[in-house]
Design brief:
It comes from Poritiphilus flavus. This is GNAT family N-acetyltransferase. InterPro entries: Acyl_CoA_acyltransferase (IPR016181), GNAT_dom (IPR000182). Keywords: Transferase. There is one protein chain. This protein is α+β, with helices and mostly antiparallel strands and 147 residues long. A hairpin with an 8-residue loop joins strand 3 and strand 4. A 7-stranded mixed beta sheet has the order 1-2-3-4-5-7-6, sandwiched between helices. It has one domain: Aminopeptidase (3-Layer(aba) Sandwich). 27% of the residues lie in helices and 37% in strands. It is globular.
Length: 147
């Protein structure tokens, strides 16, 4: 999988469409969760696009501290259903952690993790902080990792 990091203004319309389509396919349709995905935060984020054979296979967006959460953060972590089972989730997250360290210059990062993915995030160095909560009707937990 090839991973690129782009600022919002560097995304072309085809890339932006693929990102929004994938996020909608997984977070709205697959997870049956009606929420406002286009949240006016994309313009502040760095976008990590993982492509395989020209198709968007995995994606995250990262923020510096204060632009989305208290700490630097990684969000909208998603792997295309047709590309699952190849370790792309780990690849895009490892690249995202590296991007926070190198591009945003932060030593700690947080995620608002869907609770069922807690072990996945633990394997990447994240630890749970506080109690679980509902976000858009889905159980989540705040997790932090030192970089």
């Amino acid at each position: 999988m090839k991973i690129e990091i782009k600022r919002f203004e560097e995304l072309n319309t085809t890339e932006l469409y693929a990102i929004l389509r994938l996020r909608s396919e997984v977070f709205v349709v697959e997870q049956n969760c009606v929420y406002q995905d286009i949240d006016a935060k994309d313009e502040k984020a760095l976008h990590l696009l993982g492509t395989n054979k020209g198709e968007l296979a995995a994606y995250t967006r990262i923020f510096k501290a204060g632009d989305y959460a208290e700490k630097a953060s990684i969000g909208r972590v998603v792997v295309d259903p047709g590309h699952r089972g190849h370790g792309y989730g780990y690849e895009i997250m490892k690249a995202s952690l590296k991007a926070v360290k190198e591009n945003i210059k932060e030593d700690e990062v947080e995620v608002s993790a869907q609770t069922y993915l807690k072990d996945f995030y633990n394997s990447l160095g994240f630890s749970e902080v506080g109690e679980g909560y509902l976000e858009d009707g889905i159980p989540h937990i705040r997790m932090l990792a030192a970089l």
